Amino acid sequence: MSEDLNKVQLITARYGEKDRPENILWNSQIEGLLNHRSVRNFSQQALPEYWFETLVAAAQSASTSSNLQQWSMVAVTDPALRAQVRKLSAGDKGLANGYIEEAPAILLWVADLSRNHDMTVSDGLTPGVHDYLDSFVMATVDAALASQNATVAAESIGLGTVYIGATRNKAKELAELIQLPAHSYVVCGLVVGWPAADSDAAIRPRLPQSVVAHHNLYSACDLDAHVRSYEEAFHAFREGLGMKDKTWKQAVQGAATSLAYMDGRQNLRATLEERGFGFK
Ligand SMILES: Cc1cc2nc3c(=O)[nH]c(=O)nc-3n(C[C@H](O)[C@H](O)[C@H](O)COP(=O)(O)O)c2cc1C
Q1: What range(s) does the Nitroreductase domain occupy (predicted)?
Q2: Nearest alpha carbon, ligand 1 atom 30
C-alpha cells in the first residue's frame, strides 16, 4: 500500500514539519494507527479467507455502552446490491463514491436498538428509555467504535478502507434496501478491499495537537495562527496528490454553509423518527 515510513516520517506526515510533537511512545500498534490513510482505489483481488470473522471479532471487541451491544453490521458483497448502495450514496451528480462498486465489500454499520427493544416488548415491558436522545447516541457511538476497530484490524492485515458517510444521504431508502428492522439505521459505511497497486492513498495531515487536545481545562488557543500553520501542511498534502488548491478553511466553511454538501442528510432526523428513534 505504501512505502515503509519510519517513526519520524510518520509523525511528520501527520502534522507537518512545524507542528509535529517532538516524540511519542512507539510500538507496532501505534505505528499502525499513525499509518492510517483512507484508500479510494482498489484492486479486484478477493478478500482473504476469514476476513469477515476477523473484522467482526475486532469490532465486537470494542467497548460498548453498558454491554448493551446496540449495533449491527451488514456486509454488502453482492455486486448488484453494492451498485444500489453506491447509487444511494453517489451524491447529486451521481458520480461520488465509485469505490463502493470497485471494492469487494462495503460494511454498513448500524446503530441498532431493535434487538433490545424487541426483547423488552416481548415480555410485556415498555422500552421507554429508547424514546430518548441518549439511546440514539449510545447506539450510534457503539456502531462507530465497532467500525473503527474493524478498520484498524483491516489495515493491520494490509487491507484498505474508506468510510462512507454518504450512506446517510438516502438513509430511508438504504434501510429499506438492506431490510433493516425498526429502531435501527446505518450510521456509516466502510469500503474494504486491497488497495490498487497504483493507489495514491497518503497520510492526511491533522491540526496541531494543541488545537484539539487540552490539559484539565478547555483552553482556546490562537486558532487563526494554528490554522494558518496547518494550511501549510494541508496545502503540501493536496499539492503532492495533484488535487486542486483549496484551503482547509474553505473546506470547513463549505461544509458549514452549503446545504448541497448535506446531499439529503437534511432529512435524517425525519427518517430516524419514522424508523422509531426518539429525541426526547
Ligand atoms: C464517518 C465518516 C464518513 C466519511 N464519509 C466519506 C465519504 O462519504 N466519502 C469519502 O470519500 N470519504 C469519506 N470519509 C473519509 C474522510 O474524508 C477521511 O477520513 C478524511 O478526509 C481524513 O482522511 P484520512 O482518513 O485519509 O486520514 C468519511 C470519514 C468518516 C470518519
Answers
A1: 35-194
A2: 163
